[in-house]
TrEMBL record:
Pfam families: DSBA (PF01323)
PANTHER family: GLUTATHIONE S-TRANSFERASE KAPPA (PTHR13887), THIOREDOXIN SUPERFAMILY PROTEIN (PTHR13887:SF41)
GO MF annotation: an example: oxidoreductase activity
Lineage: Bacteria, Pseudomonadati, Pseudomonadota, Alphaproteobacteria, Hyphomicrobiales
Name recorded for this polypeptide: DSBA-like thioredoxin domain-containing protein
InterPro entries (alphabetical): DSBA-like_thioredoxin_dom, Thioredoxin-like_sf
Residues of the DSBA-like thioredoxin domain: 3-204
CDD domains, A to Z: DsbA_FrnE (cd03024)
Source domain of life: Bacteria
Length: 236
């Protein structure tokens, strides 16, 4: 079974979505036969590489709301993340481009470390105030994920995997992906948004039963887990 996930490190719902997907797969009877491929998607392709603005300030400016309103919106997200055991600190998370981080995620796949790279980037961005566009920071995070230093340096010093990042974005447009996370199972089922673990598990079993038929099965979908936060929508 092949699962493809379009996501952005800068998307708070994607962090929750990855955690839920990992949880669902860990309890799936055929987990050892599941391949997960992380696809690139940028919510803001025009973001500057590095800024000093935190995500509360960015949300306020982008949507023309007060800083207090932005803090309240992000605090709701923070509480939801806490229920999943994830740390969000929107007061220190720094707005900036995720393009080079996506290049590293593609590189990590060549070493079988995509998931580890994703997890390290999410935790660093949302919980530690690390800048996704800073190469020294990305190098340190890649080493934390277990990637070889010299190869990481070569990737960051070049445009390696840039074409793959752009190709993922183009394919997302062809698939009419309008928000992330967006999960595709065996190119048959699509799960938009950070679906509950139970819904993901049902979809995994449904997809598996179709290629390994053992009986009838019907998955129940629930829209409650769909992306709702403005931060997970395409910029207008």
């Amino acid at each position: 079974m092949k699962i493809e996930v379009w996501s952005d490190i800068a998307c708070p719902w994607c962090y929750i979505g990855k955690h839920r997907l990992d949880t669902a797969i860990s309890s799936f009877a055929h987990a050892d036969e599941v391949e997960v491929v992380w696809r690139s998607y940028q919510l803001d392709p025009d973001a500057p590489r590095v800024t000093d603005k935190n995500l509360n300030q960015t949300l306020s400016e982008k949507h023309g709301i007060s800083l207090a309103q932005a803090v309240a919106m992000n605090d709701k997200m923070r509480r939801m993340g806490a229920k999943e055991g994830l740390i969000y600190r929107f007061d220190v998370a720094r707005y900036g481009s995720s393009f080079d981080a996506h290049r590293l995620i593609h590189f990590a796949r060549t070493h079988g470390l995509q998931s580890a790279m994703q997890n390290r980037l999410f935790a660093a961005y949302f919980g530690e105030g690390k800048a996704l566009g800073d190469h020294a920071t990305l190098l340190a995070l890649a080493l934390d994920a277990g990637l070889p230093e010299l190869e990481v340096r070569d990737v960051l010093a070049s445009d390696a995997f840039a074409d793959q990042v752009r190709a993922d974005a183009e394919e997302a447009r062809q698939l009419n992906v309008r928000g992330v996370p967006f999960v595709v199972i065996d190119r048959k089922y699509a799960l938009p948004g950070a679906q509950p673990v139970e819904v993901i598990g049902d979809a995994l079993r449904q997809a598996w039963s179709e290629t390994h038929p053992l009986g009838d099965f019907t998955a129940a979908a629930d829209a409650d887990g769909y992306c709702e936060a403005d931060a997970c929508k395409l910029p207008s």
